[in-house]
Amino acid sequence: MASFLFDIFRINIMGEDTFAFADLDDGTLGMFFVDEADDAPNQTTDQDVADRAAAAQVPAFASAPNLANGTTTIDSNVGKFDADDLTFTALAGDPSESIDLFVDTGTDTTSLLIANFDDYTGLPLTPSGSDVVIVFAATGIIRI
Fold first, then answer.
1. Sign of the CA dihedral 65, 85, 142, 17?
2. Which domain holds residue 47?
């Protein structure tokens, strides 16, 4: 499967109000790795973090790091979201094939899933207890 935006996020940015608006600039956004053997991502039916099996989250939702300094810009007529590179401290857990980006409300049932990435350098990953740094591309995390 290729990286994608979850359908619920695409609907959210057009005004659908099941979830609070996903404020990429000022909102709290988190990421966790996904063990797809425990829960394969579904672009259409996965809507919030609670739709992801707890066993698939590396680290667990409550321990997932948050992005810092999120920015949105327009570059050559393309909307771009970017943030500082992200460090997962002492990451341990199941082998993981992808990464989920989500709005972190502190509650899994209200934390909107934004995107799933399976094309980052180093994936698949088997965490060993060491720090893992996600270096976001110069072109940004999301381009619309």
1. positive
2. 4-143
> Is the whole-model pTM more than 0.90?
yes
From residue 123, give the alpha-carbon distance in Å to each of 55, 89, 101, 132. Answer: 18, 17, 15, 11
Per-residue pLDDT of the chain (144 residues; tens, 9 = 90+): 689 999 999 999 888 878 888 889 889 999 999 999 999 999 999 999 999 999 999 999 999 999 999 999 998 899 999 999 999 999 999 999 999 999 999 999 999 999 999 999 999 999 999 999 999 998 999 998
Q: Please give the Cα distance from 78 to 123 (Å, whole number).
A: 27
What domain count does the chain have? 1
Contact 34, 98 (CB under 8 A): yes
